[in-house]
Amino acid sequence: MAKTFKASKFQILTKIIIPANISTFINSLKVNIGLSLVGVISGEFLVSKAGLGYLIVYGGQVFKLDLVMTSVLILGILAGIMYAAVLILEKIIERKK
Predict the structure, then answer these.
(1) What DSSP state is assigned to residue 3?
(2) Average pLDDT for consecutive 10-residue bins of the chain (97 residues)?
(3) Distinct helix (H) and strand (E) counts, the chain
(4) What's the distance, Cα to Cα, between the start and end of the chain in Å?
(5) How far apart are CA 11 and CA 2, in angstroms?
(6) pLDDT at residue 97, rounded to an integer
(7) Is the pTM of this model over 0.70?
(8) What span, in angstroms and rounded, lies between the C-alpha atoms of 47 and 53?
(9) Are the beta carbons of 79 and 31 closer than 8 angstroms?
(10) What gap in Å lies between CA 90 and CA 82, rounded to an integer?
(11) How far apart are CA 78 and CA 20, in angstroms?
């Protein structure tokens, strides 16, 4: 219908496609927060000399459970903060609708 009224591709994208898919974008962000952290930590497991992934591996190798659990706790808090930020973003976007 927008093409019938001579809308450009950019107008179709910004006025129809993106607003219709905002909920999909937000839900994808919610799911991928955890997956992104898994990817980062997995990379640190393999090649890092510093970071939370390194502390988890090092703590496991030297039997220091406090290092492992502290790193996991920090990851959980970080994931919670990122998830809360996405929820706030979602509420802001829903208010503008």
Answers:
(1) T
(2) 84 87 90 86 81 84 88 90 92 84
(3) 5, 0
(4) 22
(5) 9
(6) 66
(7) yes
(8) 10
(9) no
(10) 12
(11) 30
